């Protein structure tokens, strides 16, 4: 008899984006995560412990103790059920549970009987996977053991957050250039498969060196933080934003047409004009120039689109700054300039 299908979370598409943007899928094993699963196995007295990330049609083990596998099909994964809710899922005896009694992971190796998994929730509230412990015998799991597993899951999340901090700008907390491009890769593939548009906006603050020289580092950092906050407020849930240079930002807009992308880009430029920040008593007005492009058929990687957006940015700066210039597939053709 076939085993039942797994539930699909209501936030599946954005959950998948959060998982991809975590930047750990398919990366080599890490001793810090391996140490955590060994600890979970020891203190909860189970032969198997895993950090499982539920990805597309598979679960992939960021760390594993007690089994050699690095992934299994999602349709077999107990963790695919655990991420459908926000509470720890406990299965005392899989043989007695209709969701799992015919599952090959139960009827064959590793012969799972007991399972407990706590969802690993992203900062935006999406369940990326679990910290789980497994036994080959049925067992009772007390409320204190559930709390202990949940505490250990928080340590996993803390370690993931520390990893994320190495990929962001320390002032803006936005993805740095390398991280922005890495996170944009799956968006390019997704857009290709769905036949959708992607737009990339490269944005740079005008006269930034003058700001630093006249008002100092604190004021220039405040300008960066204010612009970062504005970009976050203007991005849609599926968009990607990064700080890709000293005072340069990038926004990847998912599934937008040219007109909508330009409207959003110019709204951001106008919003920067209204930021007062550290300059409220000085009369100084922040301005920014931007370059906009759409994903072109010849683009093989996100960098291709970003470089074209940066060429458009140079056009905007050459035309007097405080405006958005647009270049489509032809890097020599400026389609429009907005003041």
Largest sheet: 6 strands, antiparallel
Q: Which class of secondary structure composition applies to the elements?
A: alpha+beta
Categorize the overall geometry: elongated
SSE run: HHEEEHEHEEHHEHHEEHEHEE
Number of strands: 12
Gyration radius over CA? 24 Å
Distance between the termini: 66 Å
Which spans have pLDDT < 50 for at least 5 consecutive residues?
A: 331-339
Average pLDDT value? 92
The number of helical runs is 10
Order of strands across the biggest sheet? Answer: 3-2-1-6-5-4
Percent of residues in helices: 25-40%
Write the layout of secondary structure elements.
Blueprint: H1 12-21, H2 31-43, E1 48-55, E2 58-65, E3 71-73, H3 78-82, E4 89-91, H4 104-107, E5 114-121, E6 127-135, H5 143-165, H6 177-194, E7 198-205, H7 208-215, H8 217-234, E8 240-243, E9 248-254, H9 258-273, E10 288-294, H10 302-318, E11 324-327, E12 334-338
Parallel strand pairs: 10-11
Antiparallel strand pairs: 1-2, 1-6, 2-3, 4-5, 5-6, 7-9, 7-10, 8-9, 11-12
Helix pairs in contact: 2-5, 7-8, 8-9
Describe this structure in words.
By secondary structure, the chain is α+β, with helices and mostly antiparallel strands. Helices cover 39% and strands 22% of the residues. The protein is built from ten helices and twelve strands. Strands 3-2-1-6-5-4 form a six-stranded antiparallel β-sheet. A six-stranded mixed β-sheet has the order 8-9-7-10-11-12, with helices on both faces. Strand 1 (48-55) and strand 2 (58-65) form a beta hairpin. Helix 2 packs antiparallel against helix 5 (143-165), helix 7 crosses helix 8 and helix 8 runs antiparallel to helix 9. The protein is elongated, with a radius of gyration of 24 Å.
